[in-house]
Write a structure and sequence with these properties.
Layout: H1 5-11, E1 13-16, E2 19-22, H2 31-35, E3 41-50, E4 62-67, E5 72-76, E6 82-88, E7 92-98, E8 105-110, E9 128-132, E10 149-154, E11 159-164, H3 168-181
Parallel strand pairs: 3-9, 8-10
Antiparallel strand pairs: 1-2, 2-9, 3-6, 4-5, 4-7, 7-8, 10-11
Length: 184
């Protein structure tokens, strides 16, 4: 199910399975289009932090990006938990978010259908805020055996959108369990 860009714009910020997606709007003839889209690139950027302490940024957290062709890029979050890179159109990726003491999350970035001619010139990707859960003994994290979501090209909107990887009900249940079993 696609999350409507109009709905996201109305909310401004939305939390989906521990990933915050914020809206971004490009101006016609924007530098984003010239710098990224026209070059066949997707700007993948955001911030990683503790789920319960949103101002506790995870400096040095690892962002591991694997392409469907076997290549791997490893990034480290800076002091503010921020990360940024570009990904090539025409390739699918799996992105893992890892840090010591936290449960690894991953998402799919499906760019196989992304081409400049299919994108609206005003299309701008959203920054991602990744909230990481503490790895607590006795908690079943099987929900994270699958991607928490996917970034895909929505042909109807001619822009990138999000597909949710697990139900909000399941994710909320997991959060309550972690909170109950941890010291938070």
């Amino acid at each position: 199910m696609f999350i409507s860009r109009l709905w996201l714009a109305f909310l401004g910020v939305i939390l989906l399975n521990g990933l915050w997606f914020t809206t971004a709007c490009a101006q016609s003839g924007s530098s984003y289009y010239d710098q990224y889209t026209a070059q066949g690139k997707y700007r993948f950027f955001g911030q990683i932090h503790d789920h319960f302490e949103v101002t506790q940024y995870l400096k040095g957290a690892t962002i591991r990006i694997r392409s469907e062709y076997g290549g791997e890029l490893v990034l480290q979050a800076d002091e503010q938990g921020e990360f940024e890179t570009t990904l090539d159109f025409g390739v699918n990726y799996v992105v893992f978010f890892e840090d010591s003491g936290y449960v690894t999350k991953y998402l799919a970035v499906e760019l196989q259908d992304a081409e400049e001619k299919y994108l609206d010139p005003n299309c701008t990707p959203y920054p991602i805020r990744v909230s990481m859960l503490e790895d607590v003994d006795g908690v079943d994290y099987h929900l994270f055996e699958n991607p928490v979501g996917s970034i895909v090209l929505d042909p109807d909107n001619r822009c990138f959108d999000w597909v949710i990887g697990m139900s909000e009900k399941d994710y909320s249940r997991l959060i309550r369990t972690v909170r109950k079993k941890s010291s938070r």
